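Protocol step 4 of 6: structure prediction from sequence.
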Amino acid sequence: MLIFILVIMTGAALYYGIRYTLLKHGIREISEELTDITGNLRENRILKQPFPQREMEALLSSINYTLDEVRKERVSYEKREQEFQRQLEDISHDLRTPLTAIQGYLKLIDQDSLDKEEKEYLEVIRRRSAHLQHLINQFYEFSTLLSGNYKMEFREIDLARMCREQLLGYYRQLEEAGIEVRIRIPEKPVFIQADENALSRIIGNLLQNALRYAKHRLEIEIAEMQTQEAAKEVMLICSNDAEHLTEDDVRQLFRRFYTGDRARSQGGTGLGLAVSRHLAEQMGGTMTVESRQGKDQETQDEIWLTFKTVFRT
């Protein structure tokens, strides 16, 4: 009798041991397959059961249903995004034509026939129309980037020279805004592989962002780095002090149409940084932002923003 019980117990232990081993192996296979599927949801794949098992079948059925719903939502999102891009491009194009005509008529106005007050009004109109043209161009550029129609032409560019030229172009505006600029840019050329127009847009957007939010100080630095793969990278570091920005604002700075404190947005679209990050990534680089609180009592209400853009040489 004892031997019979031992045989039954041994058989049961062997049966459940085999089931446990198979279950463990099956879960591992399913986990690896699920990781592979979620890595490319465009492929209409489902999880398959490695061996017959009722409980596992119910679980896989539930997961496959969820995957199918996620795919449907992704397709719906992509359609909405494409429609949004098309509408944005169409609106930008429709606005550019009458605006160009308005600016043309403004140039035809004989200023000599105007008195001082009328000349001031005309100058205001010109500035406003130029600003409107800038906003429309940003919308059009962003829609072009999203659609994948922006063509890069890579060549060797001296980042140090371009930074100095851009800073000279913004010198008067920075001075009028009372922003002290400190630069740490090498005198020697610092070459990177980039598209000239895209690089110019990135630097210009960073400087415009500093003009919008900097309180007193702006620092520009170029640093060369050696990566673990023995390749060289160049980092453009743009830092400025800022007021009335929360940590939540900082986290959303690259979100399109986000303008932070709208009272200080000065009519911006919230697209400049989003465009800059997209351009940096298209050139094989990255753009990130960091923040820290002011260290002393006078600056403890300030946030110091640091934008780091990495380029490949």
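Step 5 (inspection) to follow. The mean pLDDT is 79.
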